[in-house]
Design goal:
- Pfam families: DnaB_C.
- One of its GO terms (molecular function) is DNA helicase activity.
- Residues 1-48 form the SF4 helicase domain.
- The chain is mainly β and 63 residues long.
- The chain has one domain.
- It has no helices and four strands.
- A four-stranded antiparallel β-sheet has the order 1-2-3-4, with no helix packed on it.
- The protein is globular.
- The chain starts with a strand and ends in a 15-residue tail after the last strand.
Length: 63
Amino acid sequence: MVILLHREDLYDSQNRSGEADLIVAKHRNGPTRTITVSAQLHLARFTDMAANFPTKENFVKDN
């Protein structure tokens, strides 16, 4: 299994502060996907987002 970590706020401090993406890039016999987590950097840990937090899958694309 290969998991990549991406923090958008590392490159643009105004964008998605306190969030990180765990990207499952390779998974033998399993799905690959991107999981958004909460970045609690003052504690050096990542946790699940709140239950009512809108994920990328829940966003509606404008046409």
